[in-house]
Write a structure and sequence with these properties.
The protein is of the alpha+beta class. The chain has two domains: 115 residues, 2-Layer Sandwich (Alpha-Beta Plaits); 48 residues, SH3 type barrels (Roll). The protein has three helices and 14 strands. A five-stranded antiparallel sheet has the order 13-12-11-10-14, with no helix packed on it.
């Protein structure tokens, strides 16, 4: 079907969403079982670390796939290597054009790597500027105030609190407030 190509290239593989890491492990295992190390060279799951803050103030880091349902495989396409990849559990297929898998261009691959590096540690918070929030740990608790500034590096935010009939900016930690 494909003939023997000597150049390895990156190909986009469609997989069942949320199974990207297990497919990666399966591909490495099948590569060893079928002695295809020379043809299936590497598997890449584009993902980034997302940091969130729990209500207790604890920072939690989770891995998030940038392209759910897709992975990249660096391989030399032959009938055998195509068959091994295509018949891996949870793989639904290659990205095709006219019945031939289309390799990812070098420019696209560099752009993808740049995107992954840029998103290597993304900050995720449920708070947004101008959201109404309630202070839960402070002298002004149970009052509704507006978020005016968010500092992602320090994990703090500022709210304008009415103190002596004036709006006074107060810096609080994420764990000290909850959204209304």
């Amino acid at each position: 079907m494909f003939g023997k190509k000597k150049k390895n290239q990156w190909y986009v593989i469609q997989v069942v969403s949320s199974t990207e890491e297990s497919v990666k492990q399966s591909l490495f295992q099948r590569r060893e079982n079928f002695a295809m190390e020379e043809f299936i060279l590497d598997v890449f799951v584009p993902s980034a670390s997302v940091i969130t803050v729990k209500a207790s103030g604890e920072k939690v880091s989770k891995k998030k796939n940038l392209f759910p349902g897709y992975i990249l495989v660096n391989m030399i396409v032959t009938n055998e290597s195509w068959y091994i990849v295509r018949n891996t559990p949870n793989v639904t297929g290659f990205l095709w054009a006219w019945n031939v898998p289309v390799p990812v261009s070098d420019a696209e691959l560099e752009k993808l790597k740049w995107t992954v590096e840029k998103n290597s540690e993304t900050f995720a918070t449920k708070y947004r500027i101008w959201d109404p929030a309630i202070i839960i740990k402070w002298p002004f608790e149970d009052n509704i105030w507006t978020i005016t500034e968010i500092n992602e590096n320090k994990w703090t935010l500022k709210m304008n609190v009415n103190l002596l009939w004036r709006d006074t900016p107060v810096e609080l930690e994420f764990s000290q407030i909850k959204l209304k």
